[in-house]
Design a protein that fits this description.
- Chain B: Its cofactor is pyridoxal 5'-phosphate.
- Chain B: Keywords: Ethylene biosynthesis, Fruit ripening, Lyase, Pyridoxal phosphate, S-adenosyl-L-methionine.
- Chain B: This is 1-aminocyclopropane-1-carboxylate synthase.
- Chain B: Pathway: Alkene biosynthesis; ethylene biosynthesis via S-adenosyl-L-methionine; ethylene from S-adenosyl-L-methionine: step 1/2.
- The complex is a heterodimer of chains A (475) and B (478).
- By secondary structure, chain A is an alpha/beta fold.
- Chain A has 2 domains: 144 residues, Aspartate Aminotransferase, domain 1, CATH 3.90.1150.10; 271 residues, Aspartate Aminotransferase, domain 2 (3-Layer(aba) Sandwich).
- Chain A is 46% helix and 12% strand.
- In chain A, helix 7 crosses helix 13 and helix 15 packs parallel to helix 17.
- Chain B starts with a helix and ends in a 15-residue tail after the last helix.
- In chain B, strand 3, helix 8 and strand 4 form a beta-alpha-beta unit.
- In chain B, helix 7 crosses helix 8.
- In chain B, 52% of the residues are buried.
- Chain B has 18 helices and 13 strands.
- Chain B folds into 2 domains: 130 residues, Aspartate Aminotransferase, domain 1 (Alpha-Beta Complex); 266 residues, Type I PLP-dependent aspartate aminotransferase-like (Major domain) (Aspartate Aminotransferase, domain 2).
- Classes of the chains: A alpha/beta (475), B alpha/beta (478).
- Chains A and B meet through helix 1, helix 3, helix 4, helix 5 and helix 7 of A and helix 2, helix 4, helix 5, helix 7 and helix 12 of B.
């Protein structure tokens, strides 16, 4: 008899994916400005490290929240005992108000419809348990966050069917793609229970357009299925267009209290907005009472520590603080994003136009030896082992086109980002002239010629920038 | 809402719409009665006294003093804030090394340092609740079963079965031998499962026991280890009450038993632990899976992503449990307080002719009220229970909610209240028993129809009312 369960012995946990292998390499040789300046720079971790000083200053000014006190009196005992899965009321109130503030107060939320979970990881899994049977499916637009393979499928037995998005229209969701995905599920005999989108998108860093959102709402209405909108990056929108939550669309269409209203659920977290992934604060927001009720009971398996709930309820209730934080955080993200984009440009690399997230979706297709995922992997390995940057290959995000990479910008100091850009520039220069230059002997001469011309252009541009005397590549 | 209930149910999963969460059990009705009318020593002397909550509230003074003297333990104080950033970012599912080290050390200390625990085998979970579910996911496929000796903690029905699809098969235990686990009963349960074509993947024991408050002796533990090795099934030991042992006989952990047993296949041995009972910190959600099986450690660790311990809490616990002086004092003082409470309660009960199972651990008593039953049936037990809730106004837990095969037993929690409340509870019991001896409990028609169930909507409304007192949280199960 097999000793362990199938879940324990299969690899649906997804950790054999390249997404995680890069991290493992990083762990073996992590960059440190002082102790290991030649190490691998972590650019695969979507963390927000830009605004800790704001949090720290709030903490020093508010010692009670930190020290288990309320009005100077110790409430340690009450907090230590508080395990009510309905959550600390003051915290939920503050949380939904924070969510509202981030959405420009265009929508408001009812705290009794919020379910606290141990991170968005747990929220997403819990929603699967609530909405789908094993063997049923959710449609997800590609590219998507690699963690979904584990969070949505592993222990739940739910399947993911991709909605293929392409660079031809900046990876936006189209009706045709939705219908194709639905059909694909039918062909595979999978009953579709819903669509799950991440808005703003990980890994694209873009906010969904009203058009896309309306499309989604109409689609789930027609098919009678659920829509989950993972809005974990909602607080990281740093430039226009404004963030539009699906809840706003429902309101605009007067869908309050309809069947569709009950089938739309949000996932949220404080890991990205506030940069507190260690505290494990996630949430499900649903208009459906039964979903709220079932999810609340399931949250027993991953409640938020009362110590953390208390601290954050004090912090998020401080409206002066949250207003300042949201504004300042967005400003810093915007600056940092600009830094990455221009650094990449200097290396002749473009990225998808984006206005949110903690990363850019970078286009390195021109650096591929061939338009294949094998070539993408090869390029990726070069970047991890030789350039010593841990970035995430598009294939790990299920992107249909090879050559795209997610590169994070908010989890390091400015100096480190500078260094990363320098390394990349140096790499591209060398790579273009040596590796890509060697591809001249293929039969597709015209393509090669144009690529050669582009490479030459870059080489010239780089050499001009460098001020170094470089021999241009072959003509 | 425009959608028929049946359509609604098809839209959601069976797990969501079924009652596998177990909250329709009478176990929760008593709590709901308490929530409606909670006792307060000043504001509500007539209210229901909560005796259904296995919390350890006796040693907070020690902890509070430590907190006051160690501001750095909180990363949010001025003294500790320089660590805030690193801790706030830390979401590695391996857990903070200092946290794992401190917990491993604490677990060893609680077992009198007779065994040591490897910090690399310490895996976090969302409380013991999360630990049990994770273990079930790792060891069993849907349809597989775990054997569990009765009576057992009602939460297991949810934790091990609800989302995992595994089953629980009771192992019979009787009061005639103090509910000890026997090889005969284990074999009988195992064989019955075979006949029913159910694959048994493991045996789950809670030691010290909830609800009995007793510890397993070495002989029983060794025969259990032989049994599971012979059948090649897992042994999951929930040792959540390990530090609540306050008198002889000594607590013997499964870790100690296998230490001496070279024949035992260690890949079958797993421990579930938590700080909710020993330390009295259920709110902090510190659950631990400790397995001697490397594959299980690896798998459980990946699954811990679904219920990691807040790094803020990890840091606090790491500081606290690394303080050897504090830990030694806490363990010893806590045991003394529990012993004092236990002895006082049991001797007062004896004065009015109520006996409890002889116990030396836990946060409760296993009270024998079968003499007060009109007839030796579960219905009579439930009738008596409703009287206790509604007339005596004590929320105690009926044995049937623990799957006890014999009617008349009740679990009564005694460590979750101050002395004043304890005395009030005892007075009520005294009055009730004396009354019962004069006018025995008759079938009261109106009470049999009394439904203590509240709809989940109304319950939710109540819980979200601004008057929901923080002092009396509604908990799902303990």
């Amino acid at each position: 008899m097999r000793l362990l369960s199938r879940k324990a012995t299969c690899n649906s946990h997804g950790q054999d994916s390249s997404y995680f292998l890069g991290w493992q390499e990083y762990e073996k040789n992590p960059f440190d400005e002082i102790t290991n300046p030649k190490g691998i720079i972590q650019m695969g971790l979507a963390e927000n490290q830009l605004s800790f000083d704001l949090l720290e200053s709030w903490l020093t000014k508010n010692p009670d929240a930190a020290g288990f006190k309320s009005e100077g009196e110790s409430i340690f005992r009450q907090l230590a005992l508080f395990q009510d899965y309905h959550g600390f009321p003051a915290f939920k109130n503050a949380f939904v108000e924070f969510m509202s503030e981030i959405r420009g107060n265009k929508v408001s939320f009812d705290p009794s419809h919020l379910v606290l979970t141990a991170g968005a990881t747990s929220a997403n899994e819990t929603l699967m348990f609530c909405l789908a049977e094993p063997g049923e499916a959710f449609l997800l637009p590609t590219p998507y966050y690699p963690g979904f393979d584990r969070d949505l499928k592993w222990r739940t037995g739910v399947e993911i069917v991709p909605i293929q998005c392409t660079s031809s229209n900046a990876f936006q969701i189209t009706e045709a793609a939705l219908l194709d995905a639905y059909q694909e599920a039918q062909n595979r005999n999978l009953r579709v229970k819903g669509v799950l989108v991440t808005n703003p998108s990980n890994p694209l860093g873009t906010t969904m357009t009203r058009n896309e959102l309306n499309l989604l709402v109409s689609f789930i209405e027609a098919k009678g299925i659920h829509l989950i909108s993972d809005e974990i990056y909602s607080g990281t929108v740093f430039s226009s267009p404004d963030f539009v939550s699906v809840m706003e669309i429902l309101k605009a269409r007067n869908y309050e209290n309809t069947d569709v209203w009950n089938r739309v659920h949000l996932v949220n977290s404080l890991s990205k907005d506030l940069g507190l992934p260690g505290f494990r604060v996630g949430a499900i927001y649903s208009n459906d009472d039964m979903v709220v009720s079932a999810a609340t009971k399931m949250s027993s398996f991953g409640l938020v520590s009362s110590q953390t709930q208390y601290l954050l309820s004090a912090m998020l209730s401080d409206k002066k603080f949250t207003k300042k934080y949201i504004f300042e955080n967005q400003k810093r993200l915007r600056q940092r994003h600009r830094m990455l984009v221009s650094g990449l440009e200097k290396a002749g690399i473009k990225c998808l136009n984006s206005n949110a997230g903690l990363f850019c979706w970078v286009d390195m297709r021109h650096l591929l030896k061939s338009n294949t995922f094998e070539a993408e992997m090869e390029l990726w390995k070069n970047i991890v082992y030789d350039v010593k940057l841990n970035i995430s290959p598009g294939s790990s995000c299920h992107c249909t086109e090879p050559g795209w990479f997610r590169v994070c910008f908010a989890n390091m100091s400015e100096e480190t980002l500078e260094l990363a850009m320098q390394r990349l520039k140096a790499f591209v220069t060398e790579y273009s002239s040596t590796v890509l230059g060697q591809n001249m002997s293929s039969s597709h001469q015209s393509i090669k010629n144009s690529r050669r011309r582009s490479i030459t252009k870059w080489v010239f541009r780089l050499s001009f920038d460098d001020g170094r005397d470089r021999e241009p590549d072959q003509r | 809402m425009g959608l028929s209930l049946r359509n609604q149910q098809q839209l959601l999963s069976k797990i969501a719409t079924g009652n596998g969460h177990g909250e329709d059990s009478p176990y929760f009705d008593g709590w709901k009665a308490y929530e409606n009318d909670p006792y307060h020593p000043i504001d509500n002397l007539q209210g229901v006294i909560q005796m259904g909550l296995a919390e350890n509230q006796l040693s907070f003074g020690l902890v509070e003093k430590w907190i006051l003297n160690n501001p750095k333990a909180s990363i949010c104080t001025a003294e500790g804030v320089n660590q805030f950033r690193d801790i706030a970012l830390f979401q590695d599912y391996h857990g903070l090394p200092e946290f794992r080290n401190a917990v491993a050390k604490f677990m060893g200390r609680v077992r009198g340092n007779r065994v040591t625990f490897d910090p690399d085998r310490i895996v976090m979970s969302g409380g013991a609740t999360g630990a049990h579910e994770t273990i079930a996911f790792c060891l069993a496929d849907p349809g597989d079963a775990f054997l569990v000796p009765v009576p057992y903690y009602p939460g297991f029905d949810r934790d091990l079965r609800w989302r995992t699809g595994t089953q629980l098969i009771p192992v019979a235990c009787e009061s005639s031998n103090d509910f000890k686990v026997t090889i005969e009963a284990l074999n009988a349960a195992y064989e019955k499962a075979q006949e029913d074509n159910i694959r048994v993947k493991g045996l789950l024991i809670t030691n010290p026991s909830n609800p009995l408050g007793t510890v397993l002796d070495r002989e029983t533990l060794t025969s259990i280890v032989s049994f599971i090795n012979e059948k090649s099934i897992h042994l999951v030991c929930d040792e959540i009450y390990a530090a609540t042992v306050f008198s002889q006989p000594d607590f013997i952990s499964i870790a100690e038993v296998i230490e001496d047993d070279i024949e035992c296949n260690r890949d079958l041995i797993h421990i579930v632990y938590s700080l909710s009972k020993d330390m009295g910190f259920p709110g902090f959600r510190v659950g631990i899976v400790y397995s001697y099986n490397d594959a299980v450690v690896n798998c459980a660790r990946k699954m811990s992503s679904f219920g990691l311990v807040s790094s803020q809490t990890q840091h606090l616990i790491a500081s606290m449990l690394s303080d050897d002086e504090f830990v030694n004092e806490f363990i010893s003082e806590s045991a003394k307080s529990l012993e004092k409470r236990h002895n006082y309660f049991t001797s007062e009960l004896e004065k009015v002719g109520i006996s409890c199972l002889k116990s030396n651990a836990g946060l409760f008593l296993w009270m024998d009220l079968h003499k007060l039953l009109k007839e030796q049936t579960t219905e009579a037990e439930m009738t008596l229970w409703r009287v206790i809730i509604n007339e005596v106004k004590l929320n105690v837990s009926p044995g049937s909610s623990f799957h006890c095969p014999e009617p008349g037993w009740f679990r009564v929690c005694i460590a979750n209240m101050d002395d004043k409340t304890m005395k009030a509870a005892l007075t009520r019991i005294r009055i009730f028993v004396n009354k019962e001896l004069v006018v025995p409990t008759k079938k009261r028609c109106w009470q049999n129809n009394l439904s203590l169930r509240l709809s989940s909507t109304r319950l939710d409304d109540f819980m979200m009312s601004p008057h929901s007192p923080m002092q009396s949280p509604l908990v799902r199960a303990t």
